[in-house]
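go over both lines:
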Amino acid sequence: MTQPTPIRRVPRHLRTALDLAARGVPVLPLRAGKVPFANCPACLYTSCGGRPNMKTPGPCDCPRPCHAWAAATTDPDVITGPAWTTAWKQAAAVAWHPGGVGLTVVDLDHADAVAWARRTLPATRTVPTTRGEHWIYQGAMPSANAVRDGVDIKSTMVYARWLGPGTGTMTTLPDTVRELVVKEPSPVRPVTVAVPSGRGECRHRTPVYLERGIAMAEQRITAATSGVHATVYRTFLAVLSAHGRCGCLTEAHAARLFAAAQTRGESPRHCTDAWTNARIALGM
């Protein structure tokens, strides 16, 4: 007698992820603590240029999907593939990339923040969270944390935990929300580089040589259409490798690079972290 084929049980979070992906929502698995799974040792912490706890990605050469928001995908072959097989079995939640589907989440972390939103923002689709609410708007924008007490903006280059479809009609992202992230750029951290002794006049002090290098770096950052964080880190790495050991870089040069990065949605803190990580990688 032929034995019936065992029925494979699909993990609950994997079923949710596939349903969202079928509707065009980019997804990824999260482990406990709302943190993405690491793909390889190079994806751990800041070793690949990313932010601590893998919440934003850095460059990685492993063959698996990049971690953090950059791993979010709608491809069912990736979602069910071997790279995430174990992850879905251990997953504590599903995350999604709001900016990847043209949306913005206003994350309201406590009752006072919710009360502020109800007084200030146009009604839209809302999703209850553990301590507050997610308000979801149509339209993408740069993300930012702590734009006011208990309020984070989650859109491009971040992920949000999927907590359900919510209720209410989704409305267009208002200027009131966009204006929350418009701030004066933070001062650039002073650039400290040692001037090697015994080498005479540095060739990088030639105005044309240095200006061309900084201008090319600015152009590379502002032209990035994807993988912006990785592009910023690699560009900082290249600039410091070429100019960082001879004393030619100034705070004004660093400020230009930081400003270029911020036009692509990078926060001043992201810029500082990428600059610091690049210096560490070069032993500066």
Notes: The chain has a mean pLDDT of 79.
